[in-house]
Amino acid sequence: MASITTMLVRPNLMPSSSDLVSPPLRRSLPPAAIRFRTSRKSTTHKRFPLSVSAALQALIFDCDGVILESEHLHRQAYNDAFAHFDVRCPNSTSEPLNWSIEFYDELQNRIGGGKPKMRWYFKENGWPSSTIFEKAPEDDEDRAKLIDILQDWKTERYKEIIKSGTVNPRPGVLRLMDEAKSAGRKLAVCSAATKSSVILCLENFIGIDRFQNLDCFLAGDDVKEKKPDPSIYITASKKLGVSEKDCLVVEDSVIGLQAATKAGMQCVITYTTSTANQDFKEAIATYPDLSDVRLKDLDSLLQNVATTR
Length: 309
Hints:
Layout: H1 25-28, E1 44-45, E2 58-61, H2 71-84, H3 101-108, H4 114-125, H5 140-163, H6 173-182, E3 186-190, H7 195-205, H8 208-212, E4 216-218, H9 231-240, E5 247-251, H10 254-262, E6 266-270, E7 285-287, H11 295-304
Parallel strand pairs: 2-3, 2-5, 3-4, 5-6, 6-7
Antiparallel strand pairs: 1-7
Helix pairs in contact: 2-5, 5-7
């Protein structure tokens, strides 16, 4: 994949129907700039005064939730890992830990990255016993080892699910990618997930040829901070050689939206069932999927945005 620009710096299950979760996540999560709406229109656009302030030179896609609707697959893989290693927190010792659909929707929309999710959960609910450590780990080294082992096993399980052939790309994604490349625009994928799992997803869902023709590909391993930190998009802008104002990001969640806007980029949202009620007021457009979205629509959006820089 000689044409793909990457950086190598460093770095989301269902064995049972148990819903052993912590006290309501909404009360215990750290403050986050996320507000929820009670309803969602199918498609919305912001109205901007006409001002040719930017030209779409690079289209940047998130992976999970944008190219494929995958959060339920990550949840399945986490729960499989918890069952495999018999992970039991102090408040749920009768059965292995199992994150419910409702809990995971909240969790994955507030905290980016797999290791940060587990670290936050164990800090809030007590570090668990497991077949890795019979007693709950007490020092930072053992706690880091526990999370590393769980994350590595979860990643391999997630790969198995992806390889099963039961998942398809979201509507309109491949066509829009092809339109962008045909029009001579730069094309990138920036995901907070582990590089190996993102590569597997891209090879299976966009195809090896499209993957190899990406102008930039960055994963969670490539930056020190996860979304909503803007590092991954700032890095992509530099690697692409395109000004932030001439990049347009396609995201599915507020976490991703915040990362894009903090990087100085405009963002459109293609929301999923788990993100549909989030407040996307900072996005220049929101869509249920990309089936009716064309490159010319995105060109018009970016050209008409009134920037305040």
